[in-house]
Amino acid sequence: xxxxxxxxxxxxxxxxxxxxxxxxxxxxxxxxxxxxxxxxxxxxxxxxxxxxxxxxxxxxxxxxxxxxxxxxxxxxxxxxxxxxxxxxxxxxxxxxxxxxxxxxxxxxxxxxxxxxxxxxxxxxxxxxxxxxxxxxxxxxxxxxxxxxxxxxxxxxxxxxxxxxxxxxxxxxxxxxxxxxxxxxxxxxxxxxxxxxxxxxxxxxxxxxxxxxxxxxxxxxxxxxxxxxxxxxxxxxxxxxxxxxxxxxxxxxxxxxxxxxxxxxxxxxxxxxxxxxxxxxxxxxxxxxxxxxxxxxxxxxxxxxxxxxxxxxxxxxxxxxxxxxxxxxxxxxxxxxxxxxxxxxxxxxxxxxxxxxxxxxxxxxxxxxxxxxxxxxxxxxxxxxxxxxxxxxxxxxxxxxxxxxxxxxxxxxxxxxxxxxxxxxxxxxxxxxxxxxxxxxxxxxxxxxxxxxxxxxxxxxxxxxxxxxxxxxxxxxxxxxxxxxxxxxxxxxxxxxxxxxxxxxxxxxxxxxxxxxxxxxxxxxxxxxxxxxxxxxxxxxxxxxx
Length: 545
Description:
Blueprint: H1 12-22, H2 28-37, H3 43-52, H4 69-75, E1 81-85, E2 91-96, E3 102-107, E4 117-123, E5 133-140, E6 169-174, E7 179-184, H5 185-189, E8 197-199, E9 205-210, E10 215-220, E11 230-240, H6 246-249, E12 254-260, H7 289-293, E13 308-313, E14 319-324, E15 329-334, E16 339-345, E17 353-354, E18 357-360, E19 365-370, E20 376-382, E21 388-394, E22 399-404, E23 414-419, E24 430-436, E25 442-448, E26 454-461, E27 466-476, E28 478-483, E29 489-494, E30 503-508, E31 514-519, E32 528-529
């Protein structure tokens, strides 16, 4: 019914709402009669409703629901908003830890994305997240949907074509009531990246990367209706010394070339949306780097792949680390000059600091020589005060390299030890994601087991770099962790490999006691607690992956 045809310009819903709002008692019979008189119900329908309508409800029987016993339990977790992407669910939702309610959610299907694999996210700080906050959310798509073994017809139906290629970077706003898609940053800038997003320590921008393209980009923080701008972008390309086969391409060493990408002046946009720029057709799953070496991930240029899929930031807000998986390396960028400074090399038995040489201008390019590559690496992080950096050496070595990063000159950062565990032998179980306690005294490490086994979370003492606690058999596919910024709780998300059980395991940060499980619906791959202060970013999706 059109509003101009409604009685007095009011809908029947408005009549009910006003009746409820204006009186402590709600007389359903009278309201039904009013609706009937307004002509909104047929006479027979109105009569039927009157017959079943309850009598007047007394004021003491009207309860405004604010909680209950379960609400009291949630209150102990604190008033924090827990944000998580649903990955194959195609969106993201925000949960109020203090009440257990989902405050709001968004589904990117509704905006025309036919294959939105909601991947990684990071939230900007807000003094009162309940009144509003913004976050950036990368998405995958295209052939990435095929890696889960789903009996899906999505490719056959053409849903992976232009609208389903993925690599969107969505900027989303929660206004205190609902989530709204504010901007597709990939469309605004021409750079589509589908993996990690990390906020700058000063909250004035963010970085994102994509290991299928070997591209990392740095963006400003747009406000309101503004469009996001690219501050700088880089691509890495690998050239192995031994080109006889893919299996020898990386392990026997070679040269990594870092190139500054230039924005075309004619269009003002890069040409890297969707699948443009992909070297491989789908991402390397955790511990899946060997699939490239064994020719099991096809693509236009797997032999040049370096696996640049993340950027993290040193707490001093000057240095950023480009994480290069295939080489076990982190290129340190000076964001005041946009110049690379050095390259940290994480494998045990390899030099910890490799020099970078500029080899070209217009566009600028630099090269790093690797004598060999003893192992691949994956996730990484700086501790909250910036004195240490750690990165996972996976598959061949299965440990975590720890660097002393306290010197003002990154070229003097040095490997000092390795985090090990007797169970980390062979490909699995393997250290995966990490975060630190608020005071930096502990490092929490998710430990991945192969499907369908349950994964774990280990606690490391950062004075000794020894494992001091293990939470085993949490759930399948443990991913990222988040700490409440009051220093009370750690939340370990597990995604169930997209089709199995998923949820959040909670334990106390200081006493390391299990609290229990919280349901999280969908195959969650990442999580963040929305910061309320800029300094909270040092324990958020900024310094760690």
